[in-house]
Hints:
CATH topology: Porin
Strand order of the largest sheet: 2-3-4-5-6-7-8-9-10-11-12-13-14-15-16-17
Number of strands: 17
Mean pLDDT: 87
Structural class: mainly beta
Low-confidence stretches: 1-8, 32-36
Number of domains: 1
Strand content: over 45%
Distance between the termini: 24 Å
Largest sheet: 16 strands, antiparallel, barrel
Radius of gyration: 21 Å
CATH class: Mainly Beta
Number of helices: 4
Amino acid sequence: MTVSVYSRSNNPLSKMVRTCCLVFWMVLYSAPLWSFDFPESLQFHGFASQGYSLTSENNFFGHSQDNGSFDYTEIGANASWLPLNHLQLSGQLLFRRAGETDPQSLRLDYGLLDYTMLSDETDRWGLRLGRIKNPVGFYNETRDIPFTKPSILLPQSIYPDYVRSAQLSSDGSYIYGEHRSGYGDFFLNGGIGYPPAINREWEGILFENQLNGEISYLARLLYEWNNSQLRAAVTYYKAKFDYKSDIIPSGSLRSEPWIFSLQYNAEHWSLTTEYSLRKVSQPVSTMMSEGYYIQGSYRFSPHWEGLLRYDVFYLDQDDKNGKKFAAKDPFGHPPYSQFAKDWTAGLTWKIFPDFMLRTEYHRIDGTAWLFFLDNPNPSETSRSWQLFMLLGAYRF
């Protein structure tokens, strides 16, 4: 097992932020040892989950064929402290294991200072500094906590796990604002920072462990009406990575997604859809990825909830069947490696308020979001495959 703050960027701001994040976390978790003056404002929480994956073909989160894989574990411990009325420190350590792409490691998931500059009955404005979860779409900020997402596996068209670390968080600063009115509530997030998360999936294929996050930008506007009965959001994110490689020309990789999100919540059911256009640029090529999903969930009772979802992802909007790519690819990737269409059915059983079991079945056409490190021979993958997942989760 390795211990990491999950970044190797050499820029001064990122180094400073990482140092501050560690200091914040150490202060939060050591506060009970040196003071008893903050029993009400100092809070500790956490969660633990263990998953099981079984596939008909291909591998997902480890060697999941035949007897399946238990290589999907997440354990988080977080704390928050309010030393002043308008100042909060918070941080979380996360242990995560997810197949070959994300072997077991302990990392600083987030660690930040949150300062409220203005707060009254209708408005709230503040500033966050440190390692911050990126507010992308509806689920990115809380994607590691099983109780705050609708399924074991989030829609891969919008929240792809194969580039999870690049989208997850930033070392930098964010300004946020909230305005509540008779027409609904408005939430604005905007920030600048360095993507700290470099994952083995990207580096192992092309970049020889020489991929570094550079200055990036993000903004999201979220609207909620009638106590979140209707929610709508638009997100723009511009991320940049510098790399060196002997396989492709060295230079910069840029990812610029626009994500449009819409959700309606009734008493017993919810309907959610998100659509993404992602421009991906490197020195020799530019392409536009496209993805969307539609998802319905129904709450049968306080303890049982069902889910149905259709999720579609194209790596290149102009080559949806992947034939153009396969014709010139030197590594032997088949055409179906450029798209994925996923039908998902899921069921959640909340046995107790702090413990739940969740299961889901995926029927997938294509391998666009399949992990290369779990499937190192693209020509040996199967276009049509099935995935069964089971997860138990506890929070405290």
